[in-house]
Design goal:
This protein has 280 residues and is α/β, with parallel strands linked by helices. It contains eleven helices and nine strands. The chain has a seven-stranded mixed sheet with strand order 5-4-3-6-7-9-8, with helices on both faces. Strands 1-2 form a two-stranded antiparallel sheet.
Amino acid sequence: MAAEPLTLRQALLESRTRLASCSDSPAVDAEWLWSHALRRSRSWLLAHPEWPLTPAERSRGESLICRRQDGHSVAHLCGECEFLDFSVRLTSQVLAPRPETELLVEQALHGLPRQAHILEWGTGSGVLALALARARPDCQILALDHSRAAVKLAQSNALRLRLKNIRFMQGDWRRPWPGGTFDLILGNPPYVALHDPHLQSPGVRREPCSALVAPAQGTQAIRVLATQARRRTHRRTRLLLEHSADQGDICRKIVQRAGWGQAKTLVDLANLPRTCLTLH
């Protein structure tokens, strides 16, 4: 007698249990991965708990669960990620956007002048530039990344969202940047030290190392970025940088030594020091 097929409810329950050791949100992760495996929305999953999984559906879903247990992010496994009120495509060559990065968008928009010129360094999938372009279509944005693959991905995301006020370019943060002066320069540079134990955590170890790790205990990219950005400023230019939760003091000192004057540290959604903002 043939065994009863596994139902969606059973698959979700089993997956939540398996993901509990590698995820802070195992139930949500399970729903996203099974939604991707079945090519259905999450709302459809919740409305059809007794759906009998075919062998092919079960195989696809369990493969995704195994890869999530092995450290791959849900966003990379699904090839897509939501950020604020829109979604972007992702590849394994760029970081998956974190919720705390939304703070950069919020602070960037605060006090931004009309028709501002903005420079973003290290755009990755383009989420920061895309969010600013959507919120402020009057602004012109130049977004750089050292990775050609990242630039192509960001361009494709901008095309999907029909945004025309962004220009993406490949560039090296250690060399002179294109363009004139900017009203706002922002970035989420690599800031993790090479031997930081967090690099082996389940949510990080499969991320692209070049987008995470920087020499000099994670501060070299911040130092170079602060110095290079100073050459593209006018009197009221602001600099906005994301950093790790333990780099607030050193980041302020770095930007002040680079000639930016006063700076303050802002906390993220978890009330952790996360962003350095220069003051006029």
